[in-house]
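sorry for the late reply, my laptop died twice this morning and i had to redo everyting from scratch. anyway the thing you sent over, i finally got around to it. pasting the sequence first so we're on the same page, its 245 residues, then the predicted structure underneath. double check i copied it right bc i was rushing
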Amino acid sequence: MNGGHELVEQVYAAKTDTEAADSLIRQYMGFIRAETAKYIHRAPIEGQDEELSIVLLAFYEAILGYEKTRGAFLAYASRGIRSRLIDYYRKEKKHAKVTSLHEPVQDDESDTLKIDHLEHPENEIEKSHRRSATQDEIREYENQLMEFGISFSDVADNCPRQERTLQACRQVLAAARENPGLLDELLRTKKLPMTALSNISKTDRKTMERHRKYLIAILLAFTNGYEIIRGHLYHLSGNQRNSDT
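ok and here's the structure:
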């Protein structure tokens, strides 16, 4: 799978180029089929399962609607797919001659079709969907970290261990977010723009050097909007800090 940044570039190109969009859809047909299978509980059959067509459409809509600030693309697409399928099942429930969602199929209560469970936060389908979206985001993020020669264990080892150091890292993050050109430089050069960030954030350069891998990781998380990863990094920092007290 492509690194997160490369995928974002592909998505942005596909917004205005139908050939690029078709290519991206072909490239991620495995993902599209897997998303469909979550809801019909088997491999989808082209030309037979309407859900597959709906998921294809939702994936294309995700391409058109995606922005970096909305999180990792595949996780964003998964949410759009889920929403589309829920709308489809609701429409079927309301307008089509289908079995009631609350009545037993063929008089067997054990076979009751309860599509509205998709909306229940503890439903197995929803939990599976959430796990899959998390795994997709983690894979994207891990691939991007590898481009910088950083592993997850490196990030864990490099987390700030004191409150004042964590605060200094947050100042660096704030400076980078207020100056997007520095984030672009990070992605382009694969190096932390140390001098500029130190000057803007008023953070000691030695502190930044000591936590360079952590800073790169957290900046990358905000660059491509990895919502799940960002929460994990902050949680990790808190655990590290508490372990030192």
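The first helix runs from residue 4 to 16.
thats about all i looked at so far, will dig more tmrw
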